[in-house]
Structures are given as C-alpha cells and as structure tokens.
Amino acid sequence: MDPQKSTSNDENVSLRKFNTDLHIHTCLSPCSDWEMSPKKIVAKSIDQQLDIIAICDHNSAENVQAAIGLGEKLGLCVLPGMEISSREEVHILGLFRAVEQARAMQEFVYAHLPGENKVEVFGHQVIVNEKDEVCGEVSRLLIGASRLSLQDIVVKIHKLGGLSIASHVDRPSFGIIGQLGFIPPDLALDGLEVSYRVPLNEVREKIPGTMSFPCISSSDAHFLDDIGKVKTVFTLAAPTFEEIHLALKGKDGRRIET
Known about the structure:
Helices cover 25% and strands 24% of the residues. By secondary structure, the protein is of the alpha/beta class. The chain has a single domain, classed as Metal-dependent hydrolases (TIM Barrel, Alpha-Beta Barrel). Strands 1, 2, 3, 4, 5, 8, 9, 10, 11 and 12 form a 10-stranded mixed beta sheet that branches. Helix 1 crosses helix 2 (64-74). It is globular and about 50 Å long. The relative contact order is 0.19.
C-alpha cells in the first residue's frame, strides 16, 4: 500500500494526505501586495505542491471566482472564503462550498461595513480577472471592522452552510484570545487557526483555551513568497469542502495531521 494512503473502514474509501493553505489574500486586500493576483496565486500554490487553498480577503469575496476558475483549469482546489472583522476587532475566516455562498456572506458583511477606503492611506483594493486584468476597485473600507458581532458572523456563516475558523489565535492583534482574553463558550467555531509561529503539535501546550477545538495552520499570505510557508496536511478522500468539514470533525478517518 502507498504509505501516503489508507483505507476508511466505515466507508471503504481510499484516503490520502492533502497539503492545504486555507488563508490567502489577493490584491483585493489593501494590505496585500500588488503581485497577489488570482493567476499568480494559483501558479505559486501549484509550485508549492498545495492541493487545496482558500482565498480569504478582508471583508470581501470579489476575487474568489477568478481564482476558482483558474484552479479548476490547473487541477487546484480553491475554496471561496472571507476574513471578516467583527466589531470586537476579531478576525474570523468563513470558508464556503460555493461562490454563491461567499457572495451572500459578502452582501451581509457589506451591509454592516462602514467607511470608504482612502487609497493614499490604506492602498488599492483591486478586482482582477483570470487574465490578470484589473476589472475595478472596491471603494468600501475593507481593512476596517464591521458592525457585526462575533455571534452575528458565526451564525450567518453556518446559515450559509460554511465553516467558521478563528484567525491566527496566537497573535495579540485581531486574534480572538488576544482581543477578548478567552474564547466565548457559546461561540460555535468549527476550528482555530495558528500562524507559522506555533507548530500544530505544540498548540495545546502553548495557547490556553484551544483544547476543545481542531486547529490548523495557514500562511495568511499577503505576498507570493509566503504562500505555503506554513500548511496543514489533511487526510481526506478528495480535495473538497465536504472532506475538510469531515476532517475538522475527525469523522470517518478524515483528520488533521500534526
């Protein structure tokens, strides 16, 4: 048997390991590099031998369709997502099965996102197509906090069939533990993300309050060279949203490798 493969007794399906980076920003995020176009991100992800990525721009999903289209052509699974900033200034990743769900989440966030972007202060917020052509800019203040509470965000993500993961919980800024001092027990998170600074096998001992949650590592890439800098290896049957969901729950042999 291939050492990278195993068999799930429950479903009698072949499982194997998949490399993932589930938090990547495009040039839509004002703090991201101009080189972070969907085309270049997909090419770099393949070069880094990633199987699954997620596009998670700040408070918007305008560039996910281009990345998904390119991924489908080149054999890379691209999940639509967003990194949403709550009124508590906590960042939450929303990962979705389909573009339509991400767009519905975007509409919800836009309705509660105050302010206009100041290009000279925060930078451009560029919408790009599959050919690296600029299609427009977003005028909303994507870098800012929404008026939505953490509960509002997590509940809406779940209503849309998505997964909610607290971003970079090891960081003092914009991480849920750094901002609040704890993880609210009634907040139905599907998982926690840590940065490259904390190896997955050391999360439990280094970060209090993480014992009850599955944890992943992501690059939070804002520059091409950061893509795949840190990754999570999942054991799955296929590179899909549904399989990631099973792995976060540790069901049917699907799991996070540490």
